[in-house]
Structures are given as C-alpha cells and as structure tokens.
C-alpha cells in the first residue's frame, strides 16, 4: 500500500470509529536519520507524490535556554535570522520567493526555534545553500542597526499580542503566575519589554555562537528528492561548518503548584472572562494522551461538556476553551470562558468547577470520549497530508522534528497514536482528579474597565 493509500485508510478508520482503528493501521512516516561529523542531525522523508520539498530546520533553543533578565531573546533572534547572511545578503525572502518557495517562515516556542519553507524540487540545492549560509555566516552581517530595528518589531508584536489585545494582559498574568520570576518560561515566549530593551549586540553575538551551531540543530527534508543527491548537497553546504559543543540545558523539575492563587485584571473589554491554569507533566509523559483527550472532552465543539453546560444550558458564557500545551519542563492545562452579557464571573467560575468536579468523579461518557478521540486523531492524521505545516511543527516534516526533539525518535507517530487509542474513560477521570486539583491552580478574572475610563 502506498503512503497516500495508507493515509486514506487510517483517516477513514479514525473518523468512523476511533476504538476500531488499531495502531497497526496507522501509516508510519518513513525516514532515515543520520548525523554529519559536525553534529548536525539530518532526517530524510521521501515522498514523490508532488514535485515539492519541505525544508524544516530546528534549532534546539527557546526560552528554556534563556538566562535571567534575557527573556524573549530566542524569539528576537528568530527575527534577526531573516535580516541577512554573508553570501546570501539581505534578500533572503526575495531569493526564495523568486525560486517559487511557499510557506517561508520561522516560529519560536518554549523549547525550540524553527525555520522552514517548501520549495520546488529543482530549487532544493539553492534552499540548502541559503539555510547553511544563515547557520554559518549570519554574524558577518549582524549589526547594531539591525538589532534595533528587530527589537522594535518584536516590541510592537508584544503590544499587539498582550498589551493592546483583548484579554492579552490576562493571558500574560496567568502565565507569569504559573511560572514566577526565575523560571525560564516566565515572561511568555515573546519576553518582557525591559528584557528586550536590555539586549545588546554582544548578547546577540554570544547567543548565536552558543546555540546556532550544527550540533544544536536538526535538518529535515520531506518530499520529492533523490536521497543520495540530497545527502551530497547537505554534506557540501553544511559539512564544512565548524563543530561546536552542543549546549546543555539543566533545570530542576518545575515544582507542582502548591495553592490556589487568584488574580484580577482590569481591561478595556465588554465581557468578563475567567481563565484557569494548572501545571501538568512535561511533553509525552504517560499522562499526556489522557490530558489531550480531557481537553477535547471539555471544549472544542458544540457537543463538548463545557459548551453544553455553560453556553447552551445555563447561558452563562458566550465561548469556552480548554487546551493542553505540553513542553519540556512542564505542561500547561488551561480552561477559560468568556461570560455572556450581564453574567457575573463568579457564576461562570462556579459552573466550570462543577463540570470539572463531575468529570473528576465520574469521567466522561463513552460517547464523549469517542468523540474527543476522533477529533484528536483526525487532527493528527490530517497533518500527514501536508509536507510542512504553517507553524513548522505540524505536517510530516514538523511531526518528525517534534518527535525527534522531545523523544529522540522521529518515528514515534505509531506509538503516539496507540497511546491516544488506549485512553479509557477511567484514565480521563483519574488524570483530571490528579492533575486538575481545584486547590492548586491559578485563576485570573478579567474585569471590564469602566467605559468612562477607556481611551
């Protein structure tokens, strides 16, 4: 069976009956993994269905690596990496776009920074040269002026995401309370204004030399290429880059939240919002699959528990959300609801708590669990239809990178699918009772600013 045929079969099985879809029917993403002498990891996945190649490069650096008073540096550096390199010059985007590249972007998460693009197969060599030039010769063009420009861009991005965005300040308050000063996740991925202002050119140069080395990166190709030719090009352009020690990340385990902490944030919004957050185990722990399904049971559709109870039956909320964000040091499980017009936040909070207490005591119904499982599996399997996803960690190239980053095994798709399939109603009940303790969480209530005080 071809990869495409296996995918169609798996999608049909996953969407028709999640419990009936055995893990053996899940298509693997065929890959080859090897390393250059300078430490660069390479993952190759060949699929000749379309004349395209996804190029996806992960540097294993994010806020998890940032020292105190340097929050946001990884994300700032993501912007800087688009400003030019010695041999490519400053026309990085234009050169790729003229070669027919699409989905040219970079993103930063708590634990990594990635750069990716999808190119016609005939332009793969050009793309590899460009990425190798950024890795090896970026500092030749870095200037104080470029740093100042990108600092301004990131600060404006922060304003749009937090200071000036509806409920942005509340979202930041939740994160900063879960991860206090001194924790690498404090200050959000984008960093604080004061830390961004404090960044100097010498800091940027030291950051690049430490983290933008072949030994701290993984290059993934997915698509239509000849493996032997691709290996020869990778060796030609990346092989001569000097080997440097791979930096290590040493952090004590994130302690469990010990109490209930309440915060109130006044914002120029029309409706109140209640947001709750818990610290949960790191990515791909044994609890992760059950927590993913718990979030899908709670919210994400009109048939989910929170939507039915708060929006449809009680008419207390206009929208509800539940999400799991698993990372290397800790996961973040969050639940939020925007109050319906005229409804007090206290009633919204009480209704959310009632749902959580009931699920922790009885677990979801089998119908709820099956629906949630289908939703999670469909989302997972749909990614296999793309070479590169829009965030660089979805699509086939992104999945290979993500599994490799957190588990050292790019081929973990089959096991991850099986772990989702294996979750039972009692697993969801137990994980909710153990991880979403109502006495150990952060609650942030957003209060609308009086209209007379709004700008």
**CATH superfamily of the largest domain, please?**
Metalloenzyme, LuxS/M16 peptidase-like
Rg calc: 23 Å
The CATH architecture of the largest domain can be named as 2-Layer Sandwich
Q: Can you list the strand order of the major beta sheet? A: 1-2-6-3-5-4
CATH topology of the largest domain: Cytochrome Bc1 Complex, Chain A, domain 1
Structure, described:
The chain has 16 helices and eleven strands. With 455 residues, the chain is α+β, with helices and mostly antiparallel strands. The chain has two domains: 31-238, Metalloenzyme, LuxS/M16 peptidase-like (Cytochrome Bc1 Complex, Chain A, domain 1); 260-449, Metalloenzyme, LuxS/M16 peptidase-like (Cytochrome Bc1 Complex, Chain A, domain 1), CATH 3.30.830.10. The strands form two sheets. The chain has a six-stranded mixed β-sheet, with helices on both faces. Helix 1 runs antiparallel to helix 13, helix 2 crosses helix 5 and helix 10 crosses helix 16 (425-435). The longest helix is centred in the middle third of the chain and has 20 residues, at 144-163. The chain is globular and about 65 Å long. The protein starts with a helix and ends in a 7-residue tail after the last strand. The relative contact order is 0.17. Residues 1-24 have low confidence and may be disordered.
Brief account:
By secondary structure, the protein is of the alpha+beta class. It has helices at 3-16, 73-80, 92-98, 124-137, 144-163, 168-178, 193-198, 201-211, 227-238, 288-298, 305-313, 345-362, 366-382, 395-407, 413-422, 425-435; strands at 32-35, 41-46, 52-59, 102-108, 113-120, 217-223, 260-267, 273-280, 317-325, 331-339, 441-448.
């Amino acid at each position: 069976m071809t990869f495409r045929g296996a995918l169609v079969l798996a999608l049909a099985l996953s969407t028709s009956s999640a419990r009936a879809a055995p893990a053996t029917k899940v298509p693997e993403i065929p890959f080859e993994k090897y390393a250059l002498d300078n430490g660069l990891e390479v993952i190759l996945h060949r699929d000749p269905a379309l004349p395209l190649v996804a190029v996806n490069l992960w540097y294993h650096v994010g806020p998890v690596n940032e020292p105190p008073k340097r929050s946001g540096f990884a994300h700032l550096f993501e912007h800087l990496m688009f400003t030019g390199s010695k041999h490519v010059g400053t026309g990085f985007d234009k050169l790729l776009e003229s070669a027919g590249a699409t989905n040219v972007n970079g993103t930063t998460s708590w634990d990594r920074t990635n750069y990716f693009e999808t190119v016609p197969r005939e332009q793969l060599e050009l793309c590899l040269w460009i990425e190798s030039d950024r890795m090896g010769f970026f500092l030749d063009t870095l200037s104080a002026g470029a740093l100042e420009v990108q600092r301004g861009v990131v600060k404006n991005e922060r304003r749009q995401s937090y200071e000036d965005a509806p409920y942005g300040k509340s979202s930041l308050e939740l994160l900063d309370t879960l991860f206090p000063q001194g924790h690498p996740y404090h200050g959000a991925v984008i960093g604080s204004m004061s830390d961004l202002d404090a960044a100097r050119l010498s800091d940027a140069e030291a950051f690049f030399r430490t983290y933008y080395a072949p030994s701290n990166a993984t290059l993934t190709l997915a698509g239509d290429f000849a493996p032997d030719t691709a290996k020869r090009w990778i060796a030609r352009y990346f092989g001569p880059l000097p080997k440097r020690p791979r930096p290590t990340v040493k952090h004590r385990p994130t302690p469990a939240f010990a109490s209930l902490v309440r915060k109130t944030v006044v914002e120029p919004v029309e409706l109140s919002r209640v947001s709750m957050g818990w610290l949960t185990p790191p990515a791909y722990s044994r609890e992760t699959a059950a927590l993913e399904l718990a979030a899908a049971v709670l919210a994400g559709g009109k048939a989910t528990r929170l939507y039915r109870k708060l929006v449809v039956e009680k008419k207390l909320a206009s929208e509800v959300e539940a999400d799991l964000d698993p990372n290397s040091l800790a996961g973040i499980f969050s639940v939020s609801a925007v109050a319906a017009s005229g409804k007090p936040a206290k009633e919204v909070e009480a209704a959310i708590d009632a749902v959580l207490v009931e699920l922790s005591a009885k677990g979801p119904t089998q119908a709820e669990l099956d629906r949630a499982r289908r939703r999670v599996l469909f989302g997972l399997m749909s990614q296999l239809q793309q070479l590169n996803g829009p965030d660089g960690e979805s699509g086939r190239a992104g999945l290979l990178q993500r599994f490799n980053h957190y588990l050292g095994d790019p081929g973990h798709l089959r096991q991850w699918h099986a772990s989702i399939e294996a979750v039972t109603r009692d697993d969801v009940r137990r994980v909710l009772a153990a991880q979403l303790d109502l006495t150990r969480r952060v609650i942030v209530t957003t209060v609308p600013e009086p209209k007379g005080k709004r700008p």
